[in-house]
Automatic annotation (TrEMBL):
<comment type="similarity">
    <text>Belongs to the enoyl-CoA hydratase/isomerase family.</text>
</comment>
<dbReference type="InterPro" id="IPR014748">
    <property type="entry name" value="Enoyl-CoA_hydra_C"/>
</dbReference>
<dbReference type="Pfam" id="PF00378">
    <property type="entry name" value="ECH_1"/>
</dbReference>
<keyword id="KW-0413">Isomerase</keyword>
<dbReference type="InterPro" id="IPR001753">
    <property type="entry name" value="Enoyl-CoA_hydra/iso"/>
</dbReference>
<protein>
    <submittedName>
        <fullName>Enoyl-CoA hydratase/isomerase family protein</fullName>
    </submittedName>
</protein>
<dbReference type="GO" id="GO:0006635">
    <property type="term" value="P:fatty acid beta-oxidation"/>
</dbReference>
<dbReference type="GO" id="GO:0016829">
    <property type="term" value="F:lyase activity"/>
</dbReference>
<dbReference type="InterPro" id="IPR029045">
    <property type="entry name" value="ClpP/crotonase-like_dom_sf"/>
</dbReference>
<keyword id="KW-0456">Lyase</keyword>
<dbReference type="GO" id="GO:0016853">
    <property type="term" value="F:isomerase activity"/>
</dbReference>
Length: 258
């Protein structure tokens, strides 16, 4: 099970690698149970920075569609979403910078995972999207808030309301990513940037992140909790049930606004 998430240290840098390439690094319950404690440990250890990357063609395609709606812990929708939100909020509240190397599919929860990082390096294969509306839902781990802080409300509304994808060039132009390189350069460039940052004084890194995040941090936290309430309600709607049924049956959903 631990092979789903790989972790290593290179000096002051902690490297966490998603390793489920056959499913485009989509998270199922097993992978989530492994990832959460590894990330928590990395956030609290003596490393100065974290590099988050992935094996395979995609960074992360979000929650595995084969387990959508499944609750391994037999918990409520509210508690399921809230637990997922804690991971994103912990990344934002961490005293160390997080650098994400993203490529291919960066979708749904995978997109939100990348957005929760402090710096994003992408390669030219990137396809970024928040497609939850196509499943009768909305982003629920801070996507609406983090993306708005990066690219503004209008573009965020377009992505959230349409469920559409943007490529690497658009993501860079809009500010959703910070650097774009060729695929064969991604790992090396992300490692270079992460290593450079990790070499700086840890207390300075912590203070810099804290000061800069004061610009949007409180709003993101409040808005993320609003996502929790919205998503909990949407799980109970007829349109959500219709979206799931249509997905299973390979047909176009018919929504009623209920």
């Amino acid at each position: 099970m631990s092979e789903l998430i790989l972790v290593e240290r290179q000096g002051p840098l902690c490297i966490i690698t998603l390793n489920r390439p056959d499913r485009h690094n989509a998270f199922n319950d097993e992978m989530s149970e492994v990832f959460q404690p590894i990330l928590a440990g990395a956030l609290e250890d003596d490393s100065a920075a974290i590099l988050l990357r992935a094996i395979g063609k995609s960074f992360c395609s979000g929650r595995d569609t084969s387990v959508l709606g499944h609750r391994a812990r037999d918990e409520s929708d509210f508690h399921f979403v809230r637990r997922a939100q804690q991971t994103r909020l912990a990344m934002q509240d961490a005293t160390k910078p997080i650098i994400a190397a993203i490529k291919g599919g960066c979708i749904g929860g995978g997109c939100e995972l990348a957005l929760a990082a402090d710096i994003r390096i992408a390669d030219t294969t990137l396809k970024m999207a928040l497609p939850e509306i196509n499943y009768g839902l909305l982003p629920d781990t801070g996507g609406t808030q983090m993306l708005t802080a990066l690219i503004g409300p209008s573009r965020t509304k377009y992505l959230v309301m349409s469920g559409g994808r943007i490529d690497a060039a658009t993501a860079l132009a809009w500010g959703a990513v910070d650097f774009v390189v060729e695929p064969e350069q991604l790992d090396a460039e992300a490692l270079r940037i992460a290593t450079e940052i990790a070499s700086k004084p840890p207390i300075n890194l912590a203070m810099a992140k804290h000061i800069i995040d004061l610009m949007h941090g409180p709003t993101i936290r409040t808005g993320t909790r609003a996502e929790l309430l919205a998503q909990t309600a949407l799980f109970k709607t007829e349109d959500y049930a219709e979206a799931r049924a249509a997905h299973r049956e390979g047909r176009t959903p018919v929504y009623k606004g209920k």
